[in-house]
Amino acid sequence: SSVPSGSRSSKTFKPKKNIPEGSHQYELLKHAEATLGSGNLRQAVMLPEGEDLNEWIAVNTVDFFNQINMLYGTITEFCTESSCPVMSAGPRYEYHWADGTNIKKPIKCSAPKYIDYLMTWVQDQLDDETLFPSKIGVPFPKNFMSVAKTILKRLFRVYAHIYHQHFDSVIRLQEEAHLNTSFKHFIFFVQEFNLIDRRELAPLQELIEKLGSKDR
After folding, report:
1. Which domain holds residue 67?
2. Model confidence over 120-177: pLDDT tens digits?
3. Residue 20 lies in a domain
């Protein structure tokens, strides 16, 4: 089916998560976008002077959720129960879903089902004002960092699945530059603040090294 490219890129998998305009987090997001525009991603991920680390991580986590949401939205028609009966990132890595509340024991499921669970779960965390306060002066909870790490670790798996199982579709759609830039930004960010365990990044280790070496 031929879809005009404009409509494709505007399709997200889940509704976009908006940061309220006029809020301090919105200012931070604008700052992030401006530094990204300069092209220096290593610099763009650094904590801006005088800013709160939790808030910086929160704003960027929302932004990565939106980016992955959009990237996955472009390939949902290729990621089906039959094409991807398991959630994997190449032959050596398979993911089973558990969220600790509704599904306590990890279940094996198809990639589209897994990603649906995952993105819904992330959305619920981002919408929870006690975890991601959007109002000025409301403190972040003590466990914020561990929640953010879990969210980012899981979002990484969507990139890993797209790269391993759907990269040919990404190329056909001419989305690879977009995907690579988004992933590079994500990796530099998690490296800067040490947010994802190296072991978890193993499925894309070669790509991560390649992206990093271009920037030294």
Report:
1. 50-211
2. 999 999 999 999 998 878 899 999 999 999 999 999 999 999 999 999 999 999 999 9
3. no
Q: Which of 204, 102, 105, 91 is nearest to 158 (CA)?
A: 204
Whether 32 contacts 64, CB under 8 Å: no
pTM confidence score: 0.90
Element (H, E) at 88: strand 87-88
The three-point CA angle 85-88-89 to 5° equals 145
Give the DSSP H/E element, type plus range, for residue 130. Answer: none
Cβ within 8 Å of residue 129, ≥6 positions away: 135, 138
Give the number of domains in the chain. Answer: 1
* 161 in a labelled binding site: yes
The verdict on whether residue 166 carries a ligand-binding annotation is yes
Residue 19 located in a structural domain = no
φ and ψ at residue 87, rounded to 5 degrees: -85, 105
Q: What is the CATH number of the domain that holds 189?
A: 1.20.140.30
